[in-house]
Amino acid sequence: MVSWSIKRRFIYGGSFILVIAFIAAGLFWRVFYRTPTCSDGVKNGDETGVDCGGSCLKLCTSDALKPVVLWAKIFNISGDVYTAVAFVQNPNINSKNTKAGYQFKIFDANNKLITIKEGTTSIPKNKKFAIFETGIILKNQKPKSAELNFTSFSPWEKDTTKEPQISLSHSELLATTTSPRITGTILNSSLEDVSEVRITVFVFDKDENVIAASETFVDSLKSRTSQDFVFTWPRSFERDASVVTVMYRFP
């Protein structure tokens, strides 16, 4: 039979070893454990990919829906100068892209490629928006159609911020037989100032075909103030205008 003194030594010894083990585990934890972050290059925490998804700001590429190009057109501005315009929808409700690469392809009446123009744009969350490629010079060539394709995307980011309270009002199309013009006002009803607002106008014929488009910028608009804007075209449209749509977006 083991004496009580020996049992006591076993108990004390075991307790001592247990305490040392706990201390060693704590030191190991403090030295080697790293709290998961969204920039550590490892899929951990609640991430659904490496440094993306879950509670991370970045959305995993596989979780983001591709923007939908609703239409693209080429407009003659004056002489050999043209502007390519595309209307795009971002189906991602709470995510945006700060830098997306795109490519406009311009074709003639025989669907022969005339030129390619490349650029970048931001993509606002859950919104339809326009992309303009201005100042396209096409000498001795007559473009007929345009096509837009996205070529690259920066990481998609979650965006749950509330959009400022912005409203637009505008006139009917004026001076349609000479130099068409639209006047309007943008109102910021928010408590905060806004900046870099893009205002876009589309003019449609009776068959809902886009016959003209233009864009202007408001650099800054203070809280509870308004600012007037004007869109003009150098000559009358080839077809009668029926509907005017004006919209805004932030970069």
Write a brief structural summary.
The chain is mainly beta. The chain contains one helix and 14 strands, in the order H-E-E-E-E-E-E-E-E-E-E-E-E-E-E. The protein folds into three domains: 54 residues, no CATH class; 95 residues, Immunoglobulin-like (Sandwich); 84 residues, Sandwich (Immunoglobulin-like), CATH 2.60.40.10.
Folded structure, characterized:
The chain is 12% helix and 49% strand. Strand 11 and strand 12 (210-221) form a beta hairpin. By secondary structure, it is mainly beta. The termini are far apart. The protein is elongated and about 115 Å long. The protein has three domains: 4-57, no CATH class; 64-158, Immunoglobulin-like; 166-249, Immunoglobulin-like (Sandwich), CATH 2.60.40. The strands form four sheets. Strands 1, 4, 5, 7 and 8 form a five-stranded antiparallel sheet that branches.
Share of helix among residues? Answer: 10-25%
**Beta-strand percent range:** over 45%
Main beta-sheet strand count, sense and barrel state: 5 strands, antiparallel
Count of the separate structural domains: 3
Radius of gyration: 30 Å
Count of helical stretches: 1
What is the end-to-end distance? 84 Å
Shape: elongated
The chain-level mean pLDDT equals 88
Query: What is the CATH T-level topology of the largest domain?
Result: Immunoglobulin-like
The assigned structural class equals: mainly beta
The first-level CATH class name of the largest domain: Mainly Beta
Q: Extract low-pLDDT stretches.
A: none
Q: Which architecture name of the largest domain does CATH use?
A: Sandwich
Tally of strands: 14
